[in-house]
Design brief:
Chain B: GO terms for molecular function: chromatin binding; DNA replication origin binding; single-stranded DNA binding. The structure holds 2 protein chains of 2 kinds. Chain A is mainly α. Chain A has helices spanning about 5-15, 20-25, 35-80, 85-100, 110-115, 115-125, 130-145, 150-155, 160-165, 170-185, 190-200, 200-205, 215-230, 240-250, 255-270, 275-285, 285-295, 300-310, 315-325, 330-335, 340-355, 360-365, 370-380, 385-400, 400-410, 415-420, 425-445, 450-460, 460-465, 475-490. Chain A is elongated. The chains are: A mainly alpha, B alpha/beta.
Amino acid sequence: MPVVKDHSGWMRKFKNKGKDTAALRRQRVEVSIELRKARKDEQILKRRSILFSLVDENLSLGEEKRNEIIQLSLEEIVEAVNGSNTELQLQATQATRRMLSRQKDPPINQIIELGIIPKLVEFLTHADNAPLQFEAAWALTNIASGTSDHTKAVVEGGAIPAFISLLSSPHMHISEQSVWALGNIAGDGPLYRDALINCNAIPPLLALVSPVTPVGFLRNITWTLSNLCRNKNPYPPLDAVKKMLPVFICLMEHEDKDIISDSCWAISYLTDGCNDRIQIVVDTGILSRLVELMARPELIIMTPALRAIGNVVTGTDEQTQAAIDAGVLAVLPCLLRHAKPAIQKEAAWTLSNIAAGPCWQIQQLITCGLLTPLVELLDKGDFKAQKEAVWAVANFTTGGNVEQVVELVRSGVLKPLLNLLLAKDSKTILVILDTISNIFLAAEKMGEAERLCLLVEELDGLEKIEALQTHDNNMVYRAALNLIERYFSGEETPDLQPGTGHDGLYDFSVEKQDFDF
Amino acid sequence: QRVLLLVASDVDALCACKILQALFQCDHVQYTLVPVSGWQELETAFLEHKDQFKYFVLINCGANVDLLEILQPEEDTLFFVCDSHRPINVVNVYNDTQIKLLVKQNDDLDVPAYDDIFRDEEDEEEDSDNESNGSEPSEKRRRFEEDVIERTMKRRQRREWEARRREILFDYEQYEYHGTSSAMVMFDLAWIMSKDLNDMLWWAIVGLTDQWVQDKITQMKYVTDIGILQRHVSRHNHRNEDEENSLSIDCMRIAFEYDLRLALYQHWSLYESLCNTSYTSASLKLWSVQGQKRLQEFLADMGLPLKQVKQKFNSMDMSLKENLREMIEESANKFGMKDLRVQTFSIHFGFKNKFSASDIVYATASLMENIEKEGPETTNFIKALDSLSRGNLDKLHLGLDLAKKQLRAIQQTVASCICTNLVISQ
């Protein structure tokens, strides 16, 4: 029963005994408040309902006023831009830039309709008026950041050569803004990208890359260069690519994540093409760095690095081997188990392409321990990743020798593979049936076909295959029927006593033999 | 619509429950009662019943944690929380839809302002999105009004806001305490609905007294709340002052008392009560030899013969009982016990039945905490709940006996710990 005392004083005495407040604060566990997102908007709306109506009133008042201002200014802008007063020109250009750089709904169309773009482009050439150049460059950048029509308006105003000249401006903020503008133009599509390249944009761009270039500027340059590597139909011209590659190699060694990321994206664009293009990239020796980056935890770095390597292994066996030599097989297992389904999928796709190689490459998959994570993915991965994994297994059984197929089966692939026969996707089912067929072929070569039958049956695979005989898809039905007729309609052989291995599955043991191929 | 009642295992909760049950009965609300004695049981009970109930009433549980986070209920589930635990979790306070808190109007919750702790996530800069999901870089980018300096400012502001928020939340949550008794809140509800009865008032009194007995509230709060209840007591029980219209002796009456804070003394002996009340035993240090001496001196000072004092209180000489309270208070002051009397209430019905509010608290608590369990887990709870109704005097008396055992056991255990030097001062 409490004695009369000051409540907080009493409490403080008790709690703080021996510790000071600072220590208490440090020990305190972080409280994280998360409002349930479903309710959040409602709550905020409810709580702010009074505020909102006030804000709305202000907005509508403001908008009228602002519209008036804009209209006045739009006319004024045109007048000033076309006039000869440099001060007014600057004011008008800056006002335009401000409108175009506000957070929501920049009036790009309105500005274009004013017809001032050619004038703005002309301002870019006023070397004696750096502020004017800068404001014009920024305004044009933002117009070009819109739709294709918007970018077109800028290009047709003659912006390309003007911006390319500005790359050599003595003012860094101006050359940076030009880099940005050119990035937007290049990003529109292969047409403008090549227009820039043909106007010789690349050398001055590359010249801007130096050890003393500030990080923000460097980020812009990397991004613009990556846009120059982007898009297909057609691909960027090879000589341009060859010029840019060495710079990307450098940029990928930078410590800034955005720069590394955009460089990797550029490489991923460049490897997304015919084998010749892949070769150009492989020849730079960049693959080890890419594999290194694949192992980074940051998604913005790991994603494009994985994509690039994934592209490389769609190439020739030698190109694939180059990726393997760079160490990709050591990194893949992690990625096959990644939390993000998209990464799982890309990793599986990469694996499936390596598995499409000759058996001396497939062997490396086995020795580098890729079978276990593959089987895991087949079992528990995201469905899209599972589909890729199915392809990996299929390719494996197509290109692998008998020993390798046996190894695959030993790794436990049959169970998840058969489970996937329940998938809704016909294409996947067909690939699985094909794979099973391949495995049976290998088994037959060893005289173990019957054991495999029992194994399949044991794993509830037979019933699944049988069920497929009534599948809607013709090809599925026929493939299933085929399998059953070939391997499962033989007579019972009761004297066959299969031995069970330590994991309870039938022992699919192989005696070492020489196989001729 | 059926309601699930989740009631914590303390006397205040039981009292609040009784009041609510009476109100439910009035309005023919169908409900299911589930006692819960901890978080695990609360969660389990919720999971078991969430498919059949949309409305949940939580008594003396649930206010101080993020209920929605812990229970993950469906969007249309509604929680009514009447809980004296403080501080109330900020999420519960600011949730407008699924959590309804029953709190007395002038209970100062001191909740931090909404804007200080919640922030619209959409204010985030756009880079956070791209950076986190590794998507392809945009084909075109617009340069915004705010340049790098402004963005850094924004980031710094956000960091400052977050630091302030941490401090605010730390201050808000660092001390746990109790607000108004849930039974009193429920009584308030009944009063607002004009359905308040004397029985309910008594339960409210018991609920408040439970808080006081368990040291859950300060003396000041207790006295304030007594004052509030006193007004209700007058309103319900003033007829007794009028000789002509006084009620039958069998009706229940509540009376204000400035009584001795000696546990169960009217159902025990004064001696036993002095020995087994923590306040007196601690003040006199009755585990020690000097303490026992002091007790003798104390009794002598009051002129109370030992033989009398050791008798059942009801059998004590009337003459001794006449000014007992004042006498004891006077002597107690000399012995360093300045708070031996306390404002409280007592209940009378019939000739024999007079109980102090604290008597009921001890009895009910001991029934609930009875280690001898007969039957399923909830039997003790139900027994304790039943004992609060006037018709179940047998349970009440059982509770009183158990309470005596309990109090004795406490004293013996504490005495033995002290005497065997198990308690070490740091």
